Amino acid sequence: MTTPPVRLGGFAALAAGHPQVVTESKGGSRPLRLCHPAEPGELRAIRHRVDWWARDAGLPDGMVIDLQLALGEAVANGVEHAYRTDPDTGQVGVDLELGAGPEPAVSVRVTDHGTWHSMPDDPGNRGRGLLMIERLARRVRVIGTPRGTEVLFEIPFSA
Question: What tens digit of pLDDT does each residue of 9-52 get?
């Protein structure tokens, strides 16, 4: 069970030494920054915090669904693949920012510091996560380096 956030000035952190750090927002005007252990059980807490931020920002329901689906796939990739050759579980980071302008969108950045693994030539029944992200988002980029992976994309406001 996840411990509720404890507010510390402009930040929130989980009690009991949990390593999550969250930048709080007021009306969605501030970015959301999360850092969680790369463990499957953390996905629920990430989804909850993203939902809170998105609803606080007044995002339309359809956009929140697209955001949660695409973000969930990106985080799941980090949890499942980034640290499989490392003995200790690493961290996965999530950064969200509400962008205005002629093409308003939520900018998303998911990071890990694990080992980059190229997609196999034949992924079998797997490997649909990035395809799903590309269908839900725009400006999708995956940057893999020996220091980890960054997945960047934007979820546009519904027309």
Answer: 233 333 333 344 444 444 446 899 999 888 888 889 999 999 99
User: Using H for helix, E for strand and C for coil, what is the string for 2-32?
Assistant: CCCEEEECCEEEECCCCCCEEECCCCCCCCE
Tokens of 5: 């956030």
22-51 in b/e burial notation, b at 16+ Cβ within 10 A? bebbeebebebbbebbbeeebbebbeebbe
CA distances in angstroms from 75 to 8, 27, 95, 139, listed in the order given: 26, 24, 11, 17
Beta bridge partners of 153: 108
Given a contact cutoff of 8 angstroms between Cβ atoms, the answer to whether 74 and 154 are in contact is: no
Q: Which residues of 56-92 are buried (b: 16+ CB within 10 A; e: fewer)?
A: bbebeeebbebbbbbbbbbbebbbebbbeeeeeebbb
- Written as one letter, the residue type at 17 is G
Contact of 21 with 9, CB cutoff 8 Å: no
